Amino acid sequence: DLYHSYAAKKDYIFYYNYKKLMFEKNNVKNRFIKELRFLNSLHKSGGKSKKRKSAIKKAMLARMAHHVFTILNRKPVWLFIDRQDKADDNAEHLFKYAINKNDGVKKYFIIKKDSKDYDRIKKYGKVIPYRSFRHKILTLSSSKVISTHADIWVVNPFFNMEIYFRDLFNFEFVFLQHGITMADHSEWLNKYSKNIKLLVTSAKPEYRSIVKGNYNYKKENIFLGGFPRYDNLKKSEGEKQLLIMPTWRKDIVLPKDQAKGVRPYNPKFKESEYFARYNALINDERLIEFARNNNYKITFFPHPDIQQQMVDFEKHEYVEFADYNSSYQMLFNSSNIMITDFSSVAFDFAYKKKPVIYYQYEKSYHFKLDYYDYKKMGFGDVIEDHNSLVDKVIYYMKNNSRMEDKYRKRVNNFFAYTDKNNRDRIYNAILQLDNSKVAK
After folding, report:
1. What CATH number matches the domain at 234-414, 3.30.750.80, 3.40.50.300, 3.40.50.12580, 3.20.20.10?
2. Which residues belong to CATH 3.40.50.12580 in the chain?
3. Topology, domain 72-230+423-439
């Protein structure tokens, strides 16, 4: 237990006194007294453990730095984050848009310093290394954390030291999503688990499924605005290209190291059907020969959670293995046909009416679908066997990579917006969160 701990919330400070919950007015003097008592009790609670003493010393330093920063900085702080080690997703696209707005808000992008994207983003905006001291202080002082992911590492860079800072977490969490929600994620994303202030959706049925589902949010917490990254999608540019982009499977990879944000290599991966199917596809001579004769490049880029297994695949000289740091946006824009399985990347690709094929060889889905039905709502054929898949790709290559009319209609009916104003809508919705507080 942490003695003399307290929580300063809006008008009142809450604390325990002899097992009774007490409260008093939240003003500078009362907060200062409460903080001094808490820091003093922290200092005394170190005991003989060197590790605990070191942790407490860091906690005290961070808390003091936070209070100094809060006094000196009167402007709201927004933190944007995609992955720990990779950007180029909704958070970066929104960040790049928002930093040009003269709104009195300090905006920072958070990413690991050794990421290939760090220096690139630094050229146009303020970047803070993930889990650096400054990142931690800014988290405590931020009014918004805006991210494509909703995992614990996004909102808590302190990890197991969070107990020393819990009372200072006052930001609102804006969840931009990494992909369109097709499955029922209410157990994971519900209000009592994630407490999302604004959850951004892109499709009409997706919005309805979350509003009516067991997520426990009010309607005003779910925003139908479109994904920021969709604003920069293009019909096609450059060479002709087939993009093979399957998602991952939980049962064929090892658990993720949350601090490092990576999965260790799994030596048993090569025994999986997933490996056998995709290894056969990227080495299929009939497909490769037809692609070569028709000037189609072939690029293989599985989900980031499969990247540690890329060394297992046999590399055909004609097939390019996209680097982990490759830009999704550039791959989508430069490709004409996509093969995926269950991945939400199909939505990005189909958004510009480019043909998608779903390669679903499993007898059952590895996740629980909600409203979405691939066969009735998908933007391309659902194919189970290898040869039929190759036949369909060749069909598209012969027909100038044109999406069939029935799938074009599905695209028109599914997405709420195709007007390139998604970033503007979301930016204004985030600003409105503060305006609605003032109105109250």
Report:
1. 3.40.50.12580
2. 234-414
3. Rossmann fold (3.40.50)
The C-alpha atoms of residue 38 and residue 13 are separated, in whole angstroms, by 13
Phi, psi of 431 (to 5 degrees): -60, -40
- Residue recorded with tokens 């029935």: 406
Terminal alpha carbon distance of the chain: 36
The Cα–Cα gap between 204 and 191 comes to 21
- β-pair type (144-147, 127-129): unpaired
Task: Read off the pTM.
Answer: 0.80
CA-CA-CA-CA dihedral for 159, 165, 168, 174, to nearest 10: 0
Q: CA quadruple 421, 427, 431, 436: dihedral positive or negative? A: positive
Q: Which two tokens stand for residue 208?
A: 């309805």
The token duo for 90 is 């909704």
Q: How far, in Å, CA of 386 to CA of 281, rounded?
A: 7
Q: Where in the chain is the domain with CATH 3.40.50.11820?
A: 72-230+423-439
Among 168, 170, 163, which Cα is nearest to 35's?
168
CA 174 – CA 400 distance, rounded (Å)? 40
Q: Average pLDDT by consecutive 10-residue portion of the chain (440 residues)? A: 77 86 89 84 74 80 82 88 95 98 96 96 97 91 95 88 80 95 91 96 96 95 97 80 95 86 92 98 98 97 94 97 90 95 93 96 77 94 98 97 96 93 98 68
